[in-house]
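Subject: mismatched residue count in predicted assembly?

I count 540 residues in my input, but I want to confirm that the predicted structure covers every chain. Input:
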Amino acid sequence: MTTLVFQSYRTHDVPRAIECSMASVRTWAASRGHDYRFLDDAFFDVLPAWYREKAGDHKLLLANLARLVVARNVLAGSHDRAIWIDADVVVFDPAAFDVVPDDGFAFCLETWVERVGDRFEAVHRVNNAVCAFDRGNAFLDYAIWAHERLVRDRPELVQRFGTSTALLTMIFRATPLPLVHHVGLFTPAIVRELAVPGDGPAVRELALRHGHPMHAANLTYSMVGQPHNGVVATAQDYDVAVDRLIATGGAALDASRARSSDVVSSPPSRGTV
Amino acid sequence: MFQAWVGRPAPPFVERCLASTADWARSRGFDYRLLGDEFLDVLPGWYRERLASHIVQQTNLARMRYAREVLAAGADRAVWVDADVLVYAPDDLVLEAPEGFALCREAWIQPERDSIDCIYGVNQAVVVADRGNPLLDYLVWAHETLVRDRPQNVVPFGTATALLAAIHEATPLPLVTNIAMMNPTMLREIAGGDAGPVTREFVRRHGYPTQAANLTLSMVGTWYAGGVATEADYEAAVEVLLATRGAPLDLARAYAPASSAQSRGTR
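Triage response: the counts match. Full output below for your records.
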């Protein structure tokens, strides 16, 4: 089976955390014998003009559909499998990380851990930070159609993550989509905790609540410098967090280690899984 | 265009429904197939095993898989219509699928003690699928994975109406809007000669002209909203709908002041 891993990002002013993350993906892909392709903003050229017009400069909406269309184009070529990985996903345990779409395709389980008062809440959803498609899979054409239809016919439902996380999570509730389980999802609070010595409560909570070993992490770099739930993670915080994850193989996210610590008592998780 | 009737002999009113659809299909120049028990041969063995006694669930997937086979064999379009759908205005019935695929809009009228509720959903009493459409493969997969991986979610209509409603909520599925969804109360009203209050409320809530109706065969003889529609009621309703070309379900009449003729249908 021939596999292509593809990513996209701008080619100027690339933050160090992104460079390190993409390098980790390239290294992982090479170690698995996968082909690798980086796409600059030409990535968006595959989109229909009307979609680009409606989505405007909303890069996330553009990228949500573009990864699907590029995957379809890849599968129409010589590759049997196409794997998209967001530029801000760092693979910190490449020997263990794998993307195997059991049913011909897969999306990504996310566990969003958020402090609410003096406790943490965990919400499970489905995102497209990592997604994989085999030739002949049953979902890709529908997913492309669904993204286009949503933007064309229900723009009022398109929120910040409206064409991916919200859509995929709703579909998952109807039918259990195959998932990649080994990618952690970071909030600024988690990034901050990883950037300072010692593992904080949000990191431990993620390790406990995610329910699967994590070998990679979605940094959510789009939140850099933005206050979120009272926390700001700077570019430097992201750099340090990435360095630490890679250096330790993500030890801070190890669930058994988290269990041995004093953990904040939290209510049961909500969401899809 | 294909339909199926599986198992026991079809009741006379179902025969009339099937004939009405077959006549309509031929009048449009479509190829037409009526399948019997062999219809279920299109299903994977494991699926039939899991849903052994539930023919409705089996036909839910079978129509999708059969449509896929028909398209793979060279048809440009596959159209499924449930055996209990009556075409009462064949000259005006058109099943449009501009997106290459269409399912069926459903307005389910629920008479309550002091009011009449309406629940909107999606069903697959009618399925239109063109070659190369983006939905059919996904829906086949969705039906199969639901039965395989979430059997606890499979309720009586769990592989169709519930599933499709959830998918429709995520993204608006293309729907045909010209198939009326009957319930036993409406059938009894129409069997009495004309639309009653529940039927008129349905027509208003449905909001689109209809040329065919899903008679909900599965509810023959079941207790519903304080009454039972018998097979004789179904027969009589079919007679009225065919004789009047669906006048009780006419949108304009539903907004007209109630006449004595309309009142007679209320019981």
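The longest helix of chain B spans residues 55-72. Marking this ticket as 'not a bug'.
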